[in-house]
Amino acid sequence: MAARRAHRLAGVVAALWLAAGAAPSVAARDPDRDGQADSEIRALVSALGESGCRFQRNGRWHDAGAARDHLQRKYDHARRRGLDGTAEDFIERAGSRSSITGRPYKVACPGQPERPAGEWLRERLARLRGGAGQR
After folding, report:
1. Do the beta carbons of residue 38 and residue 128 sit within 8 Å?
2. What percent of the chain has pLDDT over 90?
3. Residue 76 backbone phi and psi in degrees, to 5
4. Which residue from 20, 16, 37 is spatially nearest to 98, judged by alpha carbons?
5. Which residues have C-beta within 8 Å of that of residue 34, sequence separation ≥ 6?
């Protein structure tokens, strides 16, 4: 059952990324940008796993480790299919909402109000890049 659900999820993720135009052309690939995006996405996923925050997807709360594992699977699947993109693409297409139901993900960190996961990830990306908006 879990394998069938994972396979279904993989197909839905691929279809959504393709529909969103995330599949870059081979000629347009920039290895330096791709490497930077990969590093940033991996850092975001890791930061979530180490955050101590809870992560809600499809109405159920999960600990930070389970959230990290879930987003890593989504990212790995997209990369295998050549559907990776920028860190912003990852946040918008994989880190903000369920690929199956479309329901937004939420993050609840200790001592902070619950908020959309996309917001949390964008803020964390700004921190990683040394930008403003640090919390």
Report:
1. no
2. 67
3. -60, -40
4. 16
5. 84
